[in-house]
Design brief:
The chain is α/β, with parallel strands linked by helices. The chain has 2 domains: 190 residues, 3-Layer(aba) Sandwich (Rossmann fold); 178 residues, Glycogen Phosphorylase B (Rossmann fold, 3-Layer(aba) Sandwich), CATH 3.40.50. 48% of the residues are buried. The structure holds ligand GMT. The site of ligand GMT has 20 residues, from helix 1.
Length: 375
């Protein structure tokens, strides 16, 4: 199949999932065209069957807001015509499904049918898309997609509750390539980050308010009072500065490392003992799955789809959003009992296998087939 994938190219769950899906499809022999404004961060362009088409938005001083959707729709039309693309898969409804719909209509004028698969990822539904300023356009573009998928049952439920949806939504969970996440913990260079007696706690996110990274700092503060430990904060975002300030204010700055965005997530997770994800909202929690795949138990909130990924009492623990005290208690329970910690590490990795890439990618392929060759 010749497939166009539209996604956000930056660090963030939806872009990561879209990129990994494209790579997996290309490895299976499909021709995959990424169409976005920048090369996706996890994309290696030297792979076979992979193309990248950059969307340029020419700046014009009349416009206070440059029309990205328009440029994206035009790029889609041109790329589909030039490469004979058969199917479009857009990740994150805003504005991708809307731009995709426009491209579909323009191509239809030339007698070209371009089926569109829209994957809903989270805040496109629960936070941004739900805003009255966007809602009619988001509802319209979901209802006019040929196939709609959501990354968790919880996100599907939210979509049906918040929007007037007239088409079926299929749940296709996010996935992980387990071969890139090592299962043993001997060669991870943990001495780079901590001394022998210290445990390593990790948080990875794009540090937006929805991630509640101030909770991460407070949970860690309680942990390190009882147990020698270090906290590694991976990612960049608007809340980082405040969290750094808070760590200094409560006197734990020397135990917290903010390392910025990283392409070596698997390396960092390899030497981590516990992963913290106390988010306000999380439709799936890809970073929690990545942690589990590396055998790192997860202490998380119980919002959205997190309970579909992190199993309470098996792969980690879940608490109400904002219940920092209980999250710290659960963390200490695990970290202070090595037998228990090892058991949870093993269980986390085992559970992550349910989301193994080779189980999930064929679901997308079957959906593509069903729309290209309906019975
Ligand atoms: O940051 C992104 O690019 C997407 C991001 C978001 O804000 O919507 O993440 C969402 O999609 C991920 C991949 O499907 C999920 O793992 C995240 O849980 C989800 N984030 C939220 O729902 C807050």
């Amino acid at each position: 199949m010749k497939i166009a994938i539209v996604c956000y190219p930056t660090f963030g769950g939806s872009g990561v999932v879209a990129t990994e899906l494209g790579i997996a499809l290309a490895e299976k022999g499909h021709e995959v065209h990424f169409i976005t404004y920048q090369q996706p961060v996890r994309l290696d362009l030297l792979s076979r069957n992979i193309y990248f088409h950059e969307v340029h938005v020419p700046k014009y001083s009349l416009f206070e807001y440059q029309p990205y959707e328009l440029a994206l729709s035009s790029k889609l039309v041109d790329t589909v015509k030039e490469y004979g693309i058969e199917l479009l898969h857009v990740h994150y409804a805003i504005p991708h499904a809307y731009a995709g719909y426009m491209a579909k209509q323009i191509l239809a004028e030339d007698g070209i049918d371009l089926p569109m698969v829209t994957t809903l990822h989270g805040t496109d539904i629960t936070l941004v898309g739900n805003h009255p300023f966007y809602k009619p356009a988001v509802t319209f573009s979901i209802n006019n997609s040929d196939i709609v998928t959501s990354v968790s049952q919880s996100l599907k439920d939210d979509t049906l509750r918040l929007f007037d949806i007239k088409v079926p939504i299929q749940v296709v969970p996010n996935f992980i390539d387990l071969s890139t996440h090592k299962s043993e913990f001997t060669d991870c260079q943990r001495d780079l980050m901590a001394s022998e007696d210290e445990l390593i706690i990790t948080h990875i996110s794009n540090m937006r308010p929805v991630k509640r990274i101030q909770d991460v700092i407070h949970i860690f503060e309680a942990i390190q009072r009882e147990i020698p430990a270090k906290l590694i904060m991976v990612g960049e975002g608007p809340e980082r500065e405040y969290a750094e300030h808070r760590a200094r204010e409560i006197g734990i700055a020397d135990r917290v490392s903010f390392v910025g965005n990283s392409n070596e997530i698997d390396k960092i997770l390899c030497f981590s003992d516990l992963f913290l994800l106390p988010s306000e909202k999380e439709s799936f929690g890809l970073s929690a799955l990545e942690a589990m795949a590396s055998g790192v138990p997860v202490i998380s909130s119980n919002t959205g789809g997190l309970a579909e990924v992190n199993v309470h009492g098996v792969t980690g623990y879940l608490s109400e959003v904002g219940d920092v005290k209980q999250m710290a208690k659960h963390s200490l329970q695990l970290l202070s009992n090595d037998g228990e910690l090892q058991r949870f590490k093993k269980q986390a990795r085992e559970h992550a296998m349910q989301f193994e890439m080779h189980k999930i990618v064929p679901i997308y392929e079957n959906l593509y087939e069903s729309v290209l060759n309906p019975v």
